[in-house]
Each structure stands twice: as structure tokens, then as C-alpha cells.
Amino acid sequence: MLAPFIHRLAGGFAGWILALVPASIFVLLLGYVPTVVGGEVIASAIPWVPAYGINLSFLVDGLSLIFALTISGVGTLIMLYSGAYLAGHPQQGRFLAFMLAFMGAMLGLVLADSLVVLFVFWELTSVTSFLLIGFDHTRQAARRGAIQALVITNIGGMFLLAGAILVQQLSGSWEMSAARAMGDVLRESGLYLVVLICFLGAAFTKSAQFPLHFWLPNAMEAPTPVSAFLHSATMVQAGVYLLARMTPSLGGTEIWTNVLVLFGGVTLIWGALGALKQTDLKQILAQTTIASLGLLVLLIGLGSDAAIAAMVLYFVAHAFYKAGLFMVAGAIDHEAGTREITVLGGLADKMPVTFIGAALAALSMIGLPLTVGYFAKEEMYLALFGGEWTAWLVLAILVAGNAMLAGVALMVMIRPFLGEARPTPKSPHEAPIAMLAGPILLGAAGVVAGILPDWLGHDVLVPGAGAILGRGVESHLTLALDLTSPLLWLSALTWALAILVYRQVDAIRTVLRRFDTALGWTADTVFDAVMFGLIRFSGAVTRFLHHGQLEFYLVLVFAALALALFGPMLAWGGLDWIMPTAELGDWSQRFSLPALQFYEWGIIALAVLGLIAVLVAPTRLVAILSLGVQGTAVALIFLMFGAPDLAFTQLMVEILSVVILTFVMTRLRLDQRDHRRFEDWARDGTLAIICGLGVSLMLMLVLNGTLDTRLSEFFTATSVPIAHGHNIVNVILVDYRGFDTLGEIAVVMGAGMAVVTLLRRPKKPPMPVAPPAPPVRVRRPRKVAS
């Protein structure tokens, strides 16, 4: 909330100042590392809705701490980058505020222990990403990308909410830590498949799994800092985090493994191929993110110790190199004026520091030794080596996917920076230090962590994998290279294929684009067709239901009332009460009139006369005035039975109704009578008799039943000590039904506004004054000489 004001005061230094927020969070979280590495868990809970057992509960363990440190650490560099990238932008303060909100939502998501809290922050990430993707809202492509991301991820949010409720019903707790201890109960439940579908739907939409991947490339309409943060450490990783967190509760089954491995493998290959056919740097990196998310989902599906270890290491490696490469792409676009890789070249001489950052990140993406990416690749190959034929098939998919991703890394590292310099829209030069800090530090972190395998295994791999698996794991990371190990030869095969992919990338791109042209449609076009169809269907339904014929609306309302009155009585035997029985007697005994006083008969007569007056009214004005007689009779009944406040309210309502109707009807001729067709008269009269008969029968059934006085006794006993009011009716309206009364007030106010609008007479525009006509000059005919 303060970011725009800080930007106004600090100007170009706002990014540096606001970066202190995630930096402080990062330092705070670093203080938890010794405790978490020691095997302890830090938990905190604040009662939120105690009646339903909902708490604001948070949990710091190995998994959540890795994600939170990545979010805050990368977020610090992103804030610095944003301050320089959007320098001079009139809405930079608003952008920085959105970025901080996005960061806070993602931190809350990964630290939440309650499923309700997780859902709240899950939706906040969707809302904040919508604001960031559509930041440049003057462009149609940005608006479309933002709406598409919001629609898809919010569908996943509804899946998550349904899954959370089902887990709570089955486990008896909203906390994921408690649900993890009851994994057997969830897996053996008959609703396991439904719960699994709910959580898979949430994760697949958020983490862009095939075929729900198409929104992620369109999110590249956001500014580059958003792309760097979105793809490395925030929203797209939320689905991966959810699957990892729910592994002890839902994992370990055959359907879990098959679904995650299948969709993860397809997404890996699809995203890698998609990256090879792109020429825009941001689109290339976006497609590789899809592939990497598929790879992470595949590893979670395998579920072995080595696979989960590979998942943890690959997440860290991916966060380092992907954020760095996106920052490099933004720096190139910022300084050279283009991101098209086909027109870039020779930038290493003009942007040497940027080239170093790109090279460091690409080394980890390729998976060369002395990087975190190398250990991640070795662990994922170890998870599949030596198994059945299905394991070998998945291993082949991993090798192919990693080779294509490594080929893309070579392309991003070499094509823009090496080779012959080419003309660009802007004269390229080195980016500001705030834009270089991220690529250099993150690229260096990917290498430094790779040359410290003991620290990487003990402080990162073991806590993270242990939190996912729910048991202790061991690290065997080492810098020693065993030339006889088949894993090393699989890595060598991956690098060789990567070089082949890089050398043939132009031919591969041509083939893939021809395939797209021949196919003619994509998931993106299907989404557009569905959205346009939904809009057209909504328009048709609106035109059908809201056609503006008030008379037809009233007919539907009263027909629904008649159905609501007689439907339950017919279904549950309520009409049997009116049949003659030995206990109740016949009609004459059951419906005998009570002994009424003369003034009571007078009130009934007044109501009947008012009814007759409305029916036979000669003019509209007489009908309106006669209508108030009914309300007056009801007010007298209230007064007679000891409810003067209700009588007064009813009388005021009737007076105001008559006055308002009279004012509204001033637009019409009140001295006329409405002549109606016989069909309309018969239809409305039949409906009125049916509804009146239904209300009467319902009241008779209620009055002849046993009166349950528990609610009345509760109000009588609690109105004074709790609400401090002696007028029970007022206490009910103001305290016990406060929101209901507020709604009624809102309805009355809305009606009043409508009446005021109807009564306001539009001012007649002044009659235009015609300009004076120019004088008519009569030309005399000339005399022509004969």
C-alpha cells in the first residue's frame, strides 16, 4: 500500500528501498535454517473461525522453507531489477505495489498449514498475477492474457476448495500437517479418486500442465520482471508445491503415479518442442518453463527417494537459472530494443556482464558439472535406471526432454551474444547495475551451490525431500566423477543430443511451424471459442429472461410462489389434513368461525371492501388509493393483537407505497381505467386465487400443528443479557437478524433510488434559435438590345 507513495518520494531509488522488504524476510527465514535442518518444525496458529475449527495456521519445514527462501531471495533481486527496468514509467509505483502483493501472496501460500489459508493465498496469487499480466492494460493482448490466466487458475482454485473440504470431512482437520498423518485414511476412502481429481485439477491449472498449459505463454504480455518472478519462484510453482505437499496424504497409489508421470512427461516434451519453434526470447523461456514444470510433476509422480531428491534440486536450479535468463532477456530488450533471436548477435562485446550472467545460468540449465543442475539431472536418471521397461521409457523421455532444454540453453547463450554483430533498433550497451545484479548473483549461486555438494545435500536436499516423503532421507551428492557410471554416460548422451539440437534448431523450427500450420488450431484457439460461445450463450439467456416485460415477470413470480406452496404439501401429504377424518371431523367442524367481537368483524369487512374497491375501481387513482386499505386492515390487526410497533411500521409502509405509486404514476393518465383482455384477467385471477388458497392452507396447517417455542424462549431469555434490549422484536431485527435487516434497508434504498430516477424529469433542451435568414436579393432581368 505504501509503495506508490515511496515511489513518489524516492523516485528512481524506490526499487532499492522496497527491496529491503523481501530482503528482510529472506534474512528472517535464514534464521530458521538451523532449526529446520536439525529436523524440527516451526508452527504457529491463530484462531480464526473457532466454531468451524479454522485457524490462521502456518508451518515452516524443509519444503516450505526452501520455497519461501527462493521467493524472498529472488524477489529481492526482482525488486531491484524492476526499479531500473521501469525507470521513468508513470505507473512504476503501482507496479512495485503489485509485485510486493504478489510476493506476499506466494509466501503465504507456501507457509500455510491450514487448507483454508492455503486457498485464500492461492486465490490471491491469481488476482495479483492478473493485475501484473494486464499491467499494460491499454494493449488488447495484455488484457486477454490477464483474463485467460485468471479464468484458468480460478477454475483450479475451485477444485482446490472442493478438495480441501473433502479432506477436512475425511480427516477431521483443516491442517495439512494433520492430514499427512492420516494418509492411509484418505487413500482407503471411497472418495479418494474425487479428492485426487480435485487436487490434480488445482495443480495442473496453476502449474500449466498439458492440456491446460496455453495460458502461460500468453502471460508473457506482462513486463519482464513479472515473467522472471512468475516463472522462477512464484505462481507457476504453486501447483508443484501443492503436489509435493500432498504426497504423504495422496501419493503412493498406482493412479497417482500413472497420472503424474503421464501428464508430466507429455508436458515436458510439449514444452521443449514449443521452445524450439519460438524466436522471441521471452516466449522461448516461457515454453521451457512449461517443460520444466512437467519434469517436476513427473518426478513427484515417481515418488522414490532419488526422484524426490531430484525434484528438490531441480526446483532450486530452475529458480536460479530461469530468473537469471529472463532478466537477461529483459536487459537485451531494454538495451537493444528487440528480443528476436534471429536478428540478434555479437552483443558480448557491448554487454559483457550480461553475457556472463547468461552463460552462468545456461551452464546450470544444460546440467554441466559444478552446477546444481548437474546434480538434479544425475538424481533423476538414478531414479529410473535399472527398472522395468516402463522405467526405461520414462528415462528416455527425460533424456530427450533434458537434451532439448539444454539445446535451447545453448541457443539463448550463444545466438544473441556471439557471432557477427547485427544492427538492432537501439544501440546496445550494458544494462544498469540494478538489472545486472540478478543474473550475476543467481548464476553464481547456481555454480557455488554446485561446488558445495555436502552443504547442498545436508541443508537443502535432506530437509526438503524429508518434508515431502514424511521420513528421513540421506544425501550422496559428491564432486567425484565415476567414469564407469552409466549415469555419467547418460549425461554425456544428453549433452551430445543438446549440441545436435542446437545445430539443427532452424530446421526443427521450420518443421514444427509447418505442423502447426497444418493442424490449424491450438488449445489457445479452443479457449477463445469456448469464451466467445459462453458470452453469446449468456447474451441469449439474458435476452430471454430479462426481456423487460414486467407483467410476465410477475406472472412467473406468482407461479413460482404457487409451486412453492403446493409442491411440499402434495409431496409430503400435507393436503391429507383437509380430508374428513374421525379425529378431526368434517369441514364444518374443522373450519368453524371463531367468536369475534364487532370491531374484529369491522376490520374483516374493511379488508373485504378494500379488495372489492380495487377490483371495481373506475380509474387508476382510485385503484391505488384502494390498495392502501388492505395494508391499513393488516396494521389494525397487528395493533389489536398487541404489536403497536409492527402496526406503525405497516401503516408507514402503506402510506409510502400509496404516495410513491401515485408519484410514479404521474407520468400516466390516472383518470383512466385499464381495460384488460379476458385471457389476462382469467390468468391473473386464477393465479391470485391459487396463491391465496395456498397461503391460507399453509397457515391452517401451521396453526393446527404443535407449536415449537424453543426459538421464542431463546429470544426471551437472551434479549436482555446479551443484546441489552427489552423490546424483543427490535432485538431480533437489529441483533439476531442484523444482516437480514441490513439487506432489507439496502433493498429499500435501491427502490428509493429507482423512484427518484423515475421522478426526475429530464430538462428540456432549449429550443434552438434559428439564425436570421439572409436578405433575398431580387435580380432584375437585364434589358437585351433587339
TrEMBL record:
Signal peptide: none annotated. Residues 52-95 form the NADH-Ubiquinone oxidoreductase (complex I) chain 5 N-terminal domain. Residues 606-669 form the MrpA C-terminal/MbhD domain. Keywords: Antiport, Cell membrane, Ion transport, Membrane, Transmembrane, Transmembrane helix, Transport. One of its GO terms (molecular function) is antiporter activity. Residues 682-766 form the MrpA C-terminal/MbhE domain. It is found in: Cell membrane; Membrane. It is a multi-pass membrane protein. Residues 764-786 are annotated as: Disordered. The chain crosses the membrane at residues 12-33, 53-81, 93-111, 147-169, 189-205, 255-276, 283-302, 308-332, 353-377, 389-412, 433-452, 487-505, 552-575, 595-616, 621-641, 647-666, 687-707, 741-759. Residues 112-395 form the NADH:quinone oxidoreductase/Mrp antiporter transmembrane domain. Residues 777-786 have a biased composition (Basic residues). InterPro entries: CPA3_Na-H_Antiporter_A, MrpA_C/MbhD, MrpA_C/MbhE, ND/Mrp_TM, Nuo/plastoQ_OxRdtase_6_NuoJ, Proton_antipo_N. GO terms for biological process: monoatomic ion transport. GO terms for cellular component: plasma membrane. Residues 765-775 have a biased composition (Pro residues). Its main location: membrane. PANTHER family: NA(+)/H(+) ANTIPORTER SUBUNIT, NA(+)_H(+) ANTIPORTER SUBUNIT A. This is DUF4040 domain-containing protein. It comes from Devosia sediminis.
